[in-house]
Design a protein that fits this description.
22% helix, 27% strand, alpha+beta, five-stranded antiparallel beta sheet, Rossmann fold, eight-stranded mixed beta sheet, 37 strands
């Protein structure tokens, strides 16, 4: 029996891998944007979002710019990619555009495989753990501006390539056995210094040997991602030099190694964070204000060695980047400001003069580089996918240089309105309301909340799992929600354990986020836009934890969807991981000390019998195990929970076919629960049988999903039978039951602590505590 079972499992795995390997090659003729477009407008469909041409990691908070400017400032190089769902693959190419002339797009190379980022574990690199984000592929120009160099992956190995900027030639430079992970041009442009990680191969060989006698359970294990220990890099970087003229490879000298792993000790000023150096040797940097670690000051050390701090308040706060102009006479910097720090200001400062604002925008500046007398930036707006613009360094005038998705302009999109409000703590909160293109004023619509960042292009929230404009086209109002600042920021600390403890004490941060959510929904109900009986909630990562907490403590949401679920007792099953240690330090109960108050306030499994909100979970195979404790408890209580697992996915889903399925299933889920509609082409042929059985079991219908006519603001309470027992009564009885329950919780310690009053500086100064 066991042998037959193992044989069946092996056959299934082989089938999955063979199907993946035999996928058709993608049609990449559409990688280059079309020159001419039809003028006819049409509604958006799922493939329009999945197949967008992307530059960079497709996240508005990228640490590294995805574009590179040539030494003379006239050309920009970048990688462009486009998903092909039918082939479950990507088309990739390297392109060059001119800075001072419209058009002039040149494709210098095409091909290669999609590359995922790789995350460290236990302080060491692993080849098998990723966030799901694309790897940061940023080309580097040769000193003479004739070539660009970049990483490209073929046949399972990443090598260093170079291509001529005029598109006449592209070729591999290295033929390494293990992946090339970093590189730099030599000063004369005649060679490359590059790094590989041979320790990964050594770790795999060591694991294969250890497998013969069994693995010791230690910090190498990440159980939700793999039943086996991860291969952790056990050795140093191998840094070599490839001569372009002869093709010979040799070990790098100490000076050459500095190009890959620079030792900047003594070069940067103490406490310096963001740094920039001008062509004439001037240094600019940001450093924390002593009392508020997240807020920064701007400093400059001129060519004479004098250190000057910009004294203007406009040089202080959440500074995000600094650049010297080409001449070195002025400094440009970016600063987050405005309500909830949602806007970006770009300033010009000439030491000795007050800074001058060049522009202020709600758009996300993903990556900017100095290009002559301008900034070249990858930028995205709420209804505008990422593109490349030129920002004049004197006037701030913006000029479009390259739009990778000109077809997007012919789509009928929902109108977007930026909303501002405060939560119970007085924290500034914002959201973008997206309405259907044909919305009629005065119509109440079902609402879907998408979390938890609303900066940049409104594709699908954090992780892009919940398609905002597709929901709007289907007839939903959508609230793209920006979570308020962390409660832990009130501590003014950068220590992660202190920060996390403050967040978790009495679930203060979770109450803060839920308060913002409920007040945002109430705002839309009061405006007559939203039907309060039909509100859905979605979330990934931190947003998924918000979904979990809302299931336990809110009566606002009639259906929910999450990309993982849920933080529960099993978070403590992995005692050797750093994450479990962090949970314990924040107050999570150990398995020997159940802490029923904590469990009922935070663990779905402890209150599964009282939860009736239909929950869809679309999780990756690297994360779904972490939620099985909660899912099993809900199923034992016969609650409406559906779990789908996507193979070879990580925290974020990267495969185009999975992204398309996630979009379509999410639409069908909310249509069923919020609009009582079934799609004639379901993703899963049995899904409606399950969902209908759950609906019949609980006597649900779109008009009986909730008992309220308006939303109540978040307050410290647990969902409890005492409240649910009056579901058929009038609203005064419900309110009295909630009030009794809230007072009981406050008496037991579930109270807001350290909450600033409305006029407190911590709640009104946008720079304090951030």
């Amino acid at each position: 029996m066991t042998r037959r079972l193992l044989g069946s499992v092996a056959a299934l795995v082989a089938l999955i891998w063979s199907a993946s390997a035999s996928a058709v090659a993608p049609d990449c003729r559409d990688l280059v944007p079309p020159a001419f477009l039809e003028h006819t407008k049409r509604d958006i469909i799922a493939s329009d979002l999945v197949a967008l041409r992307d530059i960079g990691q497709a996240a508005p908070e990228e640490a590294e710019s995805p574009i590179a400017v040539s030494p003379d400032g006239n050309l920009i190089a970048f990688q462009l990619r486009r998903a092909v769902p039918a082939a479950n693959a990507y088309c990739l190419g390297m392109f060059v555009v001119r800075v001072n002339a419209a058009g002039g797009l040149t494709m210098v190379d095409q091909g290669g495989s999609f590359m995922l980022d790789r995350l460290p574990m236990a302080g060491r690199r692993t080849a098998s753990l990723s966030s799901g984000y694309p790897a940061a592929i940023r080309p580097e120009w040769s000193p003479d501006g004739v070539w660009i160099a970049y990483l490209r992956r073929d046949d399972g190995v990443t090598q260093l390539w170079r291509a001529k900027a005029d598109g006449s030639r592209a070729e591999p430079v290295t033929h390494a056995i293990s992946d090339v992970t970093d590189f730099a041009w030599s000063a004369d442009g005649r060679a490359f210094v590059y790094a590989t990680h041979p320790g990964i191969a050594q770790a795999r060989a060591s694991l294969a040997k250890e497998a013969l006698s069994g693995f010791h359970y230690d910090e190498r294990f990440y159980p939700s991602a793999s039943p086996l220990p991860l291969a952790l890099d056990q050795g140093p970087l191998a840094i070599d030099v490839a001569d372009l003229a002869t093709g010979r490879v040799r070990g790098a000298t100490a000076a050459e190694r500095q190009l890959i792993t620079p030792d900047r000790q003594g070069e940067d000023p103490p406490g310096a964070e963001l740094t920039a150096q001008s062509s004439d040797g001037q240094m600019a940097w940001t450093a924390p204000r002593s009392s508020l670690p997240v807020a920064k000051h701007l400093w400059v050390r001129n060519s004479a060695g004098q250190t000057v701090r910009c004294a203007s308040i406009l040089c202080t706060g959440r500074l995000t980047n600094v650049w010297w102009t080409q001449s070195g006479g002025a400094l440009l910097y970016a600063r987050r400001e405005g309500w909830a720090l949602a806007q970006t200001g770009v300033y010009r400062w000439e030491p000795g003069q007050p800074p001058r604002q060049l522009m202020l925008t709600d758009d996300a500046l993903v990556g900017c580089e100095i290009a002559g007398n301008a900034l070249a930036c990858a930028i995205e707006g709420s209804t505008t996918p990422r593109h490349i613009e030129r920002i004049d360094a004197m006037t701030g005038q913006r000029t479009m240089l390259f739009d990778p998705n000109p077809e997007f302009a012919r789509l009928r999109l929902g109108a977007v309105e930026r909303l501002h409000w405060r939560n119970r703590l007085g924290f500034e909160t914002l959201g973008d309301l997206v309405l259907p293109p044909d919305y009629r004023r005065g119509t109440r619509l079902p609402l879907i909340v998408v979390q938890y960042s609303t900066r940049g292009f409104l594709r699908g929230g954090t992780g892009h799992d919940y398609p905002i404009q597709l929901f709007a086209a289907r007839g939903y109002a959508v609230l793209s929600f920006q979570r308020p600042k962390d409660y832990g920021e009130l501590t003014g600390t950068q220590d992660i354990k202190t920060f996390f403890r403050a967040d978790m004490r009495d679930f203060a941060d979770r109450w803060s986020v839920l308060s913002s959510l409920e007040r945002g929904v109430q705002l839309l109900v009061d405006r007559g836009v939203v039907d309060p009986r039909r509100v859905g909630l979605t979330g990934l990562s931190d947003g998924a934890v918000t979904v979990q907490f809302a299931l336990l403590h809110s009566h606002v949401f009639a259906a929910a969807a999450a990309s993982s679920c849920c933080l529960d007792r099993d978070a403590m099953v992995w005692p050797t991981t750093a994450m479990a240690d962090l949970y314990r330090s924040a107050g999570y109960p150990s398995l020997r000390s159940p802490a029923p108050g904590f469990a009922k306030g935070y663990f779905v499994s402890a209150s599964a019998g009282h939860l009736d909100t239909p929950l869809l979970i679309q999780a990756s195979d690297h994360e779904y195990l972490a939620g099985l404790y909660a899912v099993t408890a809900l199923r034992e209580a016969r609650k409406p929970v559906d779990l789908y697992v996507y193979p070879d996915e990580y925290h974020l889903k990267w495969q185009p076919a999975h992204r398309l399925a996630t979009y379509q299933r999410g639409l069908q889920w909310f249509d069923f629960w919020l609009r009582d509609r079934e799609d004639p082409n379901p993703i899963d042929t049995e899904q409606y049988q399950r969902w209908s059985a759950w609906k019949a079991q609980r006597g649900m219908s779109p008009t009986r999903l909730t008992i309220r006519t308006h939303v109540t603001s978040a307050e410290p309470r647990l969902r409890h039978p005492q409240v649910r027992a009056v579901a058929g009564s009038d609203h005064r009885k419900v309110a009295r039951a909630r009030a009794r329950r809230s007072r009981s919780l406050i008496d037991r310690g579930f109270r807001w602590r350290q909450a600033p009053r409305r006029g407190d500086a911590r709640a009104t100064d946008p720079d304090r505590g951030r």
